[in-house]
Amino acid sequence: MSHRIVLDLETKTVDAGQDRSYHRWTPMCLEHVACMQQILDETFGDIFDDPEQYSFERCDEVPNWALQAWDWPRDERSPDECREI
Fold it and tell me: What ranges do the domains of the chain cover?
């Protein structure tokens, strides 16, 4: 599984995220964004001071994928069910 996240360096928060599994990007729910925040706080606390050290890119604008609305209703299928698509 891959992840992409948007960090706010001023407030030191994770603002948005997506997971990629089975060749499909899906928005992280708020609980997963909070979990990603906790992981970064506990293990990579300096990521907000020097994101390039962890291969993060600085951007002037929020990426389009982070501004898209979630699919509704949320797709709650298991990964095995999604593979069949």
Answer: 2-61
Structure pTM?
Answer: 0.73
Distance CA 57, CA 13 (A): 16
Instruction: Report the b/e string of 51-84 with b at 16+ CB within 10 A.
Output: eeeeebeeeeeeeeebeeeeeeeeeeeeeeeeee
From the DSSP assignment, how many helices (H) and strands (E) are in the chain? 3, 3
Distances (CA, A) of 22 to 30, 80, 82: 21, 9, 7
**Averaged pLDDT in 10-residue chunks for the chain of 85 residues:** 90 92 86 93 93 92 86 62 52
Q: Cα(30)–Cα(44) distance, rounded to whole angstroms?
A: 20
Question: For tokens 């001071």, what's the residue?
Answer: 49
